[in-house]
Each structure stands twice: as C-alpha cells, then as structure tokens.
C-alpha cells in the first residue's frame, strides 16, 4: 500500500485505509449532505483524489460502500426492536417493512439506498445482487427460524423480492395522507401477510 499523503499519518494497511476513507465519507455526509464527491472526502483526509480513487473507482461506488457499511447499525436496531416478543413469519415481515419505512427519515445512510437518488438500489434494478443482499441481510436479522417454517433459499429470495417491491412502492408513492403506525401495519397485514403465510406451501 502506498503511504504518500494521509496528512502525515498513513494507515497501517489497505483495510485501515478503506476504513479511514469510509469514516471520512460519513463525516462529509453528516456535515454537507449526500451531494458530496471524492474531492470532498480527499480534502477531509488530507490526501489527493488519486489516493481515494485507488480504493473506489467512482463517487457512487464510494457512497454505496459507505451506505452499506452504515446499515449494520440499523440492522442491529431492527433486530433489537423485533426481539421484544415472538412473531410469526408474516408478522415479522410486516413489522420489519413498517419499521424500515418509519425509520427512513432518521436514517441518512439507509435513505441513500432506499430513496430515489443516484445510488438508490431502486434507481435501476431493485432486484439486483446489491438490493437482494440488503434484503437478505434484513430478513436474516428477523427472529424467525425460516427453515422450520418451510422456507428454503428460493422462497427467501422471492420473499425479499416482494419486500423490495412493496418498499419501493411506499417510498415512491407514500399515499395521501401517507400510511403510518397502526394504519400502515393493518394494510400490510391485509395484503402482504397472507402471501407470506402461503409461500412455503405454494413453492
């Protein structure tokens, strides 16, 4: 790893360099919003743009890596939220979708991935590997033994796809007025929960 720059304090290795870059990107987003570029991150780090480009080829790639890295804390919170009681698979998915939609305004990095914008997983293909990986990470945090309920990889992939499709619909068209709280959960229970309950028998 080249050690030139880094404001006189080069990282120990490439993993450390990437962590420093992602930390600096989060600092820039927190201060200036999502419309930042590699030049802003480089200035925050005290390095040249070329140094950042060695690790991230584009600003979008850097923002995506930053957003995904920051979603770990959100996934931990949703896991804690759902640990309060026992859930059926349908109940857990309904609450997971509702909780995610309600938390978006307070989750700037998750919002980068789920609201319309240049790195949104919904911008081009919301069933891409990137989008599916985020969805699988979410459902694997739910307190459900999916295998015991008859879900294999195929069923889980289709469940993630359906969750992404419904989330996209609510993100882009929240309704007038937007559904929240018990109203949102009742809607999801009527129209999403029955499909989840039937999925293991249908496939």
Overall description:
This protein has 203 residues and is an all-alpha fold. It has two domains: 6-57, Arc Repressor Mutant, subunit A (Orthogonal Bundle), CATH 1.10.10; 69-198. It contains ten helices and no strands. The mean pLDDT is 88.
Instruction: Based on Cα principal axes, name the global outline.
Output: elongated
Q: Specify the biggest β-sheet.
A: none
- State the domain count: 2
Q: Helicity, in percent?
A: 55-70%
Mean pLDDT: 88
Oligomer kind? single chain
Low-confidence stretches: none
| Strand proportion | under 5%
**SS elements, strand count:** 0
Number of helices: 10
**String of helices and strands:** HHHHHHHHHH
Distance between the termini: 49 Å
SS content category: mainly alpha
Rg measurement, Å: 19 Å
Indicate the topology.
Elements: H1 14-32, H2 38-45, H3 49-53, H4 59-82, H5 89-103, H6 108-114, H7 129-141, H8 153-172, H9 181-191, H10 193-202
Task: Sum up the structure in keywords.
203 residues; mainly alpha; Arc Repressor Mutant, subunit A; 2 domains; elongated
Summarize the model shown:
This protein is mainly alpha-helical. Helices cover 65% and strands 0% of the residues. The longest helix has 24 residues.
């Amino acid at each position: 790893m080249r050690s030139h720059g880094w404001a006189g304090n080069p990282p120990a290795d490439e993993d450390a360099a990437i962590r420093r870059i992602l930390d600096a990107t989060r600092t820039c987003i927190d201060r200036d919003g999502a419309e930042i570029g590699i030049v802003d991150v480089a200035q925050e780090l005290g390095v040249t743009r070329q140094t950042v480009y060695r690790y991230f080829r584009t600003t979008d790639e850097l923002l995506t890596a930053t957003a995904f890295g920051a979603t770990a804390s959100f996934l931990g919170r949703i896991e804690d939220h759902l640990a309060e009681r026992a859930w059926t698979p349908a109940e857990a998915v309904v609450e997971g979708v509702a909780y995610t939609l309600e938390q978006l305004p307070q989750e700037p990095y998750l919002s980068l991935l789920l609201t319309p914008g240049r790195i949104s997983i919904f911008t081009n293909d919301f069933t891409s590997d990137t989008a599916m990986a985020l969805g699988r990470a979410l459902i694997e945090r739910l307190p459900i033994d999916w295998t015991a309920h008859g879900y294999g990889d195929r069923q889980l992939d289709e469940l993630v796809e359906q969750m992404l499709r419904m989330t996209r619909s609510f993100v882009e068209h929240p309704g007038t007025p937007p559904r929240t709280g018990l109203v949102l959960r009742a809607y999801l229970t009527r129209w999403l929960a029955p499909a989840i309950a039937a999925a293991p028998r249908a496939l």
